[in-house]
User: Fold this.
Amino acid sequence: MIYCGIDWAERTHDVALVDDTGQLLAKRHITDDAAGYKILLELLAEHGDTEENPIPVAIETSRGLLVAVLRTGTRKVFAINPMAAARYRDRHSVSRKKSDPGDALVLANILRTDMHAHRPLPGDSDLGRAIAVLARAQQDALWNRQQIANQLRSLLREYYPAALEAFAGWANGLCRPEARELLKAAPTPSRAARLTRAQLQAALKRAGRKRGIEAEADRLRDVFRAEWAHQPLLVEDALGKQMLALLIQLEAACTATDDLAKAVEEAFPQHPDAEILLSFPGLGIQLAARILAEIGDDRTRFADARGLKAYAGASPITGASGKKSSITRRWVKNDRLNHAGYLWAFAALRHSLGANAHYRRRRETGDWHAAAQRNLFNRMIGQLYHCLQHCKRFDETLAFPPPLEAAESAAA
Assistant:
């Protein structure tokens, strides 16, 4: 058995191959381009790499062109956490010396001694991986949009409280097209107070509003012309220019979020698992795509539902030492999946009577809100694992059967 370790970098990579006894068979320094990838594949083939018996590879990343090249065929690629690799390095040397060729050798020896303790990259389909790219990008764009909106809100509080009051009743607030259009038309409260009814109506129309324009323009005019405290005129103008710079960033973030959301809506329904995921209460296209992006469509990735629950951070973890024992929530988890699960459980409370009843029972037994939702997520993601494994849609009566007392009274 031959094992390969690759210490990757931006421009070059170091490769090491060892056998079962730990003897170094070959080492090579390759470039990060097509020529370097060809040298790597030739080196693997020279030491017995075939389609039927590929050489496993350990590397400290799960993305990039190098990983894409290595994942062709049936080869197993193990993405080793850099912190874990650092601990393995201490097993071979206590002097804390470090070098790129040495790290490649350490990675190869990780597979030689502990390959059973590490998980290879899942064999997801190309469509599943494409949906993962889009769903994660849309989630990042959404977080970025909210971050910029928070910065803009903080700035408006310093000199323009009238704008915050005017947009307070709108869903998504500053991210709405109407709010952005009005801020461009009046970047300072002094200019907002001079806006006429016709100008306000024109701004709302440019933002795409179709109904209630006259009434909304009158409301905005009253808010902007009310009595508010003001910064000195020069300071107010300077803050207005700073606000317009932030507004440009918010416009770009809103556009990116909307474009990526449309891309997800086009790609996700094409996946075979989409019908099963969308059958669950509380899951729409965007949230279901995020769930699929993190769990993938490789059915062999998780040995059982417990593995998926631990990966999602839904199941508790036990710490026991001597006479002390504690049960706490997991800190090491897939944060994206855990965040999507929190939103999923929250939405399921309104769309599923069984989920709502389960949540209420947990609250009555003493759980806090977050703990009860985490328990609900733990149960529902286990149900999702079962449905995906058996290609079944969600069934409310099977997922949340009525309590025994209610069933007996109904039968009587």
Remarks:
- Residues 233-267 form the longest helix (35 residues).
- The longest strand covers residues 24-31.
- The chain is about 60% helix and 10% strand.
- Residues 195 and 221 are 7 Å apart (CA to CA).
